[in-house]
Design goal:
Layout (H helix, E strand, L loop, with lengths): L3 E5 L4 H13 L5 E8 L7 H4 L5 H25 L3 E8 H4 L3 H12 L3 E5 L5 H7 L2 H8 L4 E4 L6 H14 L1
Parallel strand pairs: 1-2, 1-4, 2-3, 4-5
Helix pairs in contact: 5-7
């Protein structure tokens, strides 16, 4: 029976590493759905930036970049002989956070496994920015594979996987 693998990408090098891991992990009959969430980071600050920045142009750029990322990921998965599809998720329509959207899509699509990159932020950067990967790990009711780019962080990824498997 084929497995359904949900791969979340944001276009970063870490998410491309997650794609490479998904390719290594997936079996020929598995289906890989690549998603990318379009955040609306200016939603809360429109009045402050509206006179200085064309926020809709910025948003259109984010959407175009997301579509390119998904097209490139689809092409790479297809070249590797894997069944693939893509989906962009717009938080303007879905609401919630990026992590909420990833977990909702995993549940809606009945994913057997979620794969996403983690940037490994620490200290004040993590406190201020938060960790989408950590939020997904806490919210998901299915296995999560976290992928990092640095070899030093690979032990963190293994720790996260074992923490998920004991979660229940």
């Amino acid at each position: 029976m084929p497995h359904r693998i949900l791969l979340a990408m944001d276009g970063s090098e870490t998410s491309w590493q997650a794609l490479r891991e998904a390719i290594r992990f997936a079996m020929p009959d598995d289906i890989v759905r690549t998603i990318s969430v379009i955040d609306d980071p200016f939603a809360h600050y429109q009045s402050a930036f509206a006179s200085h920045i064309d926020l809709e142009a910025v948003r259109e750029g984010l959407i175009a970049e997301t579509q390119l990322t998904l097209a490139d990921a689809y092409k790479k998965l297809h070249e590797e002989g894997l069944q693939a599809d893509t989906r962009s998720i717009d938080l303007r329509a879905w609401g919630g956070t990026i992590a909420d959207a990833i977990v909702r899509e995993a549940e809606r699509w009945h994913a057997d496994l979620l794969i996403l990159g983690t940037h490994g932020r620490r200290g004040i950067r993590r406190l201020m920015i938060g960790s989408v990967a950590e939020q997904v790990l806490r919210q998901a009711h299915r296995p999560v594979m976290l992928v990092t780019c640095s070899s030093a962080a690979s032990s963190q990824s293994a720790s996260a996987m074992s923490a998920e498997s004991t979660k229940g």
